[in-house]
Amino acid sequence: MLLVVEDDQEMRSLLCDELMTEGYQLREAADGQEALSMVGKEVPDLILTDLKMPSGGLEYVSRLRQAAPRCPIVLMTAFGEQGIRQEAFYRGATAYFDKPVRIAELKATIKRLLDHKSAEFEQGT
Questions:
Q1: What are the extents of the domains in the chain?
Q2: Structure confidence at residue 13 (pLDDT)
Q3: In CATH, 2-123 is 3.40.50.2300
Q4: Which residues contact 60 (CB under 8 A, 6 or more apart)?
Q5: How large is the average pLDDT for residues 47-53?
Q6: How confident is residue 118, by pLDDT bands cut at 50, 70 and 90?
């Protein structure tokens, strides 16, 4: 199950539509607080999240990482700059995309991260 976190309803719908065509089960959250609440109930296989949104930001990334230590976190932002990218990785992001996101690259990254996670699980690590 993938958790898609995006405050822009149109963007969230687009992302969900694209990911559903890949066969993923999805959950949606409209802001960081809703995402953290959902992760507290069930840790997804991967979190795809916007950075700049209500209850978002770099502290939110840290809180996601604490709540789901082994879950890949794919971060998207329209407000990217080098310092934010580095800080996002420091706080726990697994992958980082500047908006506008190239959907093919995003899908490839998600598949790679999930394949890697699945391989780790099979090895028992």
A1: 2-123
A2: 97
A3: yes
A4: 32, 35, 36, 51
A5: 96
A6: low
Residue 22 CB-density burial (10 A; 0-12 exposed, 13-18 middle, 19+ buried): exposed
Q: Which residues pair with 46 in a beta bridge?
A: 2
- What 11-15 contacts at long range (C-beta under 8 Å, 24+ apart), as own/partner pairs, is 11/50, 15/48
Q: How far apart are CA 54 and CA 71, in angstroms?
A: 22
What are the structure tokens assigned to 62, written together? 């840290």
Q: Are 96 and 85 in contact (CB under 8 A)?
A: yes
Residue type, 60: Y
Q: What is the 3-state secondary structure (H, E, C) of the chain?
A: CEEEECCCHHHHHHHHHHHHCCCCCEEEECCHHHHHHHHHHCCCCEEEEECCCCCCCHHHHHHHHHHCCCCCEEEEECCCCHHHHHHHHHHCCCEEEECCCCHHHHHHHHHHHHHHHHHHHHHCC
Token pair, residue 83, equals 């310092």
